[in-house]
Specification:
Non-ribosomal Peptide Synthetase Peptidyl Carrier Protein, Chain A; mainly alpha; two-stranded antiparallel sheet; 4 helices
């Protein structure tokens, strides 16, 4: 059983999948950093300094004791983080689109094989039969 597992793990498809998962994770970190550190400040600049990550709708305010400790945490809908996630998705989708488009340009166009000779048509066959019967 151990030998079978080793053969399974060492096949090309499993190793390719593992590499793809690791690269996807790294790519996700790069894109998240790009969105949060580069794109969102630019978007915030054009929207009057709004930081989307901090946007929220407070349902219940936090309860703070006199000594400054939080007795009850704030309950809020963090819709700004959701906006960041949507922008992140759009950027990832666009980057993947550009990668696939560039990859497709590098591939050679598939040359279609010439169509096989269809042979004689029904009319040709019927004409041959008619001529053979006349003889």
């Amino acid at each position: 059983m151990l030998k079978e597992f080793k053969e399974f793990i060492m096949t090309g498809n499993v190793i390719d999948l593992a590499i793809a998962v690791l690269l996807a994770g790294a790519m996700g970190l790069v894109v998240s950093g790009f969105v949060s550190d580069i794109m969102m400040p630019i978007v915030g600049h054009f929207t009057g300094g709004v930081d989307f990550a901090e946007m929220k709708m407070v349902l219940d305010e936090a309860v703070v004791a006199a000594d400054g400790t939080v007795e009850k945490a704030e309950n809020a809908i963090m819709y700004g983080k959701w906006i960041n996630a949507i922008i992140n998705l759009i950027i990832v989708g666009f980057v993947l689109f550009m990668i696939v488009k560039a990859y497709n340009k590098t591939k050679k166009p598939v040359e279609e094989a010439p169509a096989a000779d269809p042979g004689p048509s029904e009319i040709d066959l019927l004409t041959e039969i008619r001529d053979a019967l006349k003889k």
